[in-house]
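Changelog-adjacent note: as of this version, every example in the card shows the full chain rather than a window. The one below runs 176 residues end to end.
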Amino acid sequence: MKNIKISFSIFVFFAATCFGQQNDIVFLKPQAAQQSPVEAKTKLEREEHTSINVGFLMGGGSLVGADLEFLVTNRVGLQFGAGLSSMGFGINYHLKPYINSPFVSVQYFHQGFGNNHYGSYLGPMFVLRARKILQLGVGFGAVLTKGNGMIEYYESKDIKVPSVMSLFNIGLYFPL
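Full-length structure tokens:
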């Protein structure tokens, strides 16, 4: 068995030297082979510090938008986004120390620009991230500014413009 390990190590060294990769040699340790898939997955999850989120009502509440989030500490992330007619940002606190965990956030949404401005909101949001790919956020935001679109919509229904609106989004996220 010892001869096999030595032969394998010589083979790896020789192959790496031939292809100019001698600085990237990784010698296998018996302990690494004994790691369970859960331990290996957890280690991998903690190495990812950035994610791209794409979906419905993302990027500041746009019909179709995208966000970029990066962790500044183990659990705290900053998020910036834009959509077809919106922009937004948030400060996120992850419940576990990796990017693909659920988080609570303080979000700012700005929907529409210029004459098409609908409204701006600031408030808390809870975002549930599945282990892979799916993301769903729910929260509420205080109305900071009321745009022409919002005022026209509520006046046409003879309803007072609310001071708090519900915020939500659904989409896909891709850890990098």
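Structural remarks: Residues 2-18 form the longest helix (17 residues).
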